[in-house]
Amino acid sequence: MRRSLLLIEDDALMREFITDYFVQEGWVVHEAENGKIALLIYESVSVDLLILDIMMPEVDGFSVCRRIRQKSDVPIIIITARSDDEDQILGFELGADEYVTKPLSPRVLVARANALIKRKEGTMGRDGDVLIYGKLHINRSAHTVTKAGMNINLSPKEYDLLLFLTKNCGKVLSREYILDAVWGYDYLGDLRTVDTHIKKLRAKLDDVGDYIGTVIRSGYKFEVES
């Protein structure tokens, strides 16, 4: 089954450039030139991924991201010419999974898209194991997280972060180490990206969010109290 994406970009040449490359890689691409059109398309078609620019007419990318996240955990990649840390942090706070700055490499963009989809579908590291930490259960085959039997809806990046923390249960992990391991060595974002995702993850985990402890001047540690 071919994967599909909704590309939201007001620059026609950039849109054509990205679309051509994804089509060559076997993707079905739906295009929107602004946020207003994008939201209408999203309601009428089913897509596996969103790629959206920030600066757009009608409805900007941040607003699109916010509205989509209110009802869906579809993977979202933000692309923009703006590399301000605050913009990146806001994007992650609104639920984006990746943040790619222009000029961009289409090969890297496709690779990031494929990685996000694989994590979403649970096709990476599939071994049938269910990790159990107190009331928290992580099924790596089904790519699901539950607490006391209730499903917890995580974005692909939040899932990756939780899985990394649990694999290193009891260890103090620096922000730098977490950023490199979860986002990759080539990621140019700020360390506050880690703090933002930890905050969101704790909120979604609710009372078991306390499993993720802050170690002053060191980083974070996942630990389940007896």
UniProtKB/TrEMBL annotation:
DNA-binding feature ranges: 128-224
SUPFAM superfamilies from the UniProt entry: C-terminal effector domain of the bipartite response regulators, CheY-like
Lineage: Bacteria, Bacillati, Bacillota, Bacilli, Bacillales
Protein name: Two component transcriptional regulator winged helix family protein
Record has Transcription as a keyword: yes
InterPro entries xrefs: CheY-like_superfamily, OmpR/PhoB-type_DNA-bd, Sig_transdc_resp-reg_C-effctor, Sig_transdc_resp-reg_receiver, WalR-like, WH-like_DNA-bd_sf
Gene Ontology molecular-function annotations: phosphorelay response regulator activity; transcription cis-regulatory region binding
Location of the Response regulatory domain: 4-117
OmpR/PhoB-type domain sequence ranges: 128-224
Xref: SMART domains: REC (SM00448), Trans_reg_C (SM00862)
Domain of life: Bacteria
Gene Ontology CC annotation, any one: protein-DNA complex
Organism: Paenibacillus illinoisensis
Subcellular location: Cytoplasm
Keywords, alphabetical: DNA-binding, Phosphoprotein, Transcription, Transcription regulation, Two-component regulatory system
Entry's Gene Ontology BP terms: regulation of DNA-templated transcription
Modified residues (4-aspartylphosphate): D53
Major localization listed first in the record, in broad terms: cytoplasm
Pfam families: Response_reg, Trans_reg_C
